[in-house]
Design a protein that fits this description.
Elements: E1 2-6, H1 14-28, E2 32-37, H2 43-48, E3 52-55, H3 63-80, E4 84-87, H4 90-103, E5 106-111, H5 120-127, E6 134-137, H6 140-150, E7 157-159, H7 176-186, E8 193-198, H8 207-214, E9 221-226, H9 233-246, E10 249-251, H10 259-265, E11 268-271, H11 281-288, E12 293-296, H12 301-304, E13 312-314, H13 319-330, H14 334-351, H15 354-369
Helix pairs in contact: 1-15, 3-4, 7-10, 8-9, 8-13, 11-14
Length: about 375
């Protein structure tokens, strides 16, 4: 099989990681996987996985650029014998759809988010993600949204949760030195409770809300918000000012490449998103690493975190509910924490493995090729 994946950039994020994971799976299955993208820090990971980068401006939403990209992709499809075009974002999906229809290639989309649609024009723009010969939803929450918003039938809709690489996110594979180095980089002293919030710095991810929830906490907590600011310097400055005013010790280390060690270095992992997450990959990764997890009780996180069994779910934006959940998590003794860790890893392995994602997506490709 020859697959062409389309994604704006290869910097960080669940869609980008899934792109690389499918390049690995296609290559292992004896096929070729091309990826049209602007590129980014994950380029080397793509090449190591066996993927081939085609550098194109897949980020632009300019209609002229979209049309030109469609022509470029059509030529690429014909030159390389591409059989399936798989789009993972709206702007490149428009170019990919036109190119696929022009050349007769099959067209697949992965619906990675709810995509706000406040106007009719925006709904039309979003609808391209539901126009594939197969439409992959990365959670049952997203599948319900796609059915309601676009009327996609079960003949085209497939639910494939995002995957966790259980070889990378394996507590036994992380040396204590990596964990100690991570805590030292964060400035955490022995015995100090570290609360980790992984995710890019943007208001809807809940960093500012969590600072508010931790204001006046009776014991010392070091809040680590690990993720790119992505040009949001004003928001980063606002977080620092809010933390100082609230008496919260805040660390903003930027992008962390060794997330397996980061999860182990934390006493608690929180995902306080104010808007529903499509899936909640960081919560699944943290569970795989045996970390206690609290996630907002909406969206795909409800499918990831089993309340009271593998972690907690708290009402989004409810400071009191979050304070109660944080207190319960930090009060766990070593025996209860170990039991929670075992259940969390077992759930991640059973429901959210990278191998399951890869095989399920390959099966979608095989359906279309047959």
């Amino acid at each position: 099989m020859v697959i062409l994946q389309l994604i704006p950039e290869l910097d960080a994020g669940g869609a980008e990681r899934t792109t690389i994971e499918m390049a690995e799976a296609v290559t292992r299955a004896g096929g070729r996987c091309l990826v049209a993208s602007c590129g980014g820090r994950l380029e080397s990971a793509l090449l190591e996985a066996g993927g081939e980068l085609i550098r194109l401006d897949m980020k632009s939403k300019n209609p002229v650029t979209l049309w030109r990209n469609a022509a470029r992709l059509a030529r690429l499809i014909e030159a390389e014998g591409v059989q399936i075009v798989h789009a993972r974002s709206r702007a490149p999906a428009w170019s990919g759809r036109w190119a696929a229809r022009r050349t007769g290639a099959a067209f697949v989309t992965t619906y990675h988010g709810t995509y706000s649609a406040r106007t009719g024009l925006k709904r039309v723009y979003n609808a391209v993600m539901a126009s594939g010969d197969r439409v992959i939803a990365n959670s049952y929450f997203i599948a319900d949204h796609v059915r309601a918003e676009h009327g996609v039938g079960e003949d085209r809709l497939r639910v494939i949760p995002r995957g966790v690489d259980l070889d990378v996110f394996d507590p036994a594979a992380v040396a204590p030195e990596r964990v100690a180095a991570m805590r030292a980089r964060w400035g955490a002293s022995p015995g100090e409770a570290v609360v980790l919030l992984p995710g890019r710095l943007t208001r809807w991810k809940g960093q500012a809300f969590l600072i508010e929830a931790l204001a006046g906490w009776p014991s010392t907590i070091r809040l680590v918000c690990a993720g790119d600011a992505q040009g949001r310097g004003a928001y980063e400055d606002a977080l620092k000012a809010a933390a100082e005013a609230a008496g919260v010790t805040l660390v903003l280390p930027g992008h962390e490449s060794d997330m397996a060690a980061a999860y182990m270095a934390a006493d608690l992992v929180v995902c306080p998103s104010l808007e529903p997450e499509a899936f909640g990959r960081t919560a699944a990764e943290a569970m795989a690493m045996g970390a206690p997890v609290i996630a907002s009780d909406h969206g795909g996180a409800r499918e990831v975190v089993a309340e009271g069994e593998t972690g907690w779910r708290a009402a989004p934006g409810d400071a009191e509910a979050w304070r109660n959940a944080i207190a319960a998590a930090l009060a766990l003794d070593s025996q209860a924490r170990a039991a929670l860790a075992g259940r969390g890893r077992a759930r991640a392995a059973a429901l959210f493995s990278k191998q399951a994602l890869q095989e399920s997506t390959l099966q979608v490709y095989r359906e279309l090729l047959e």
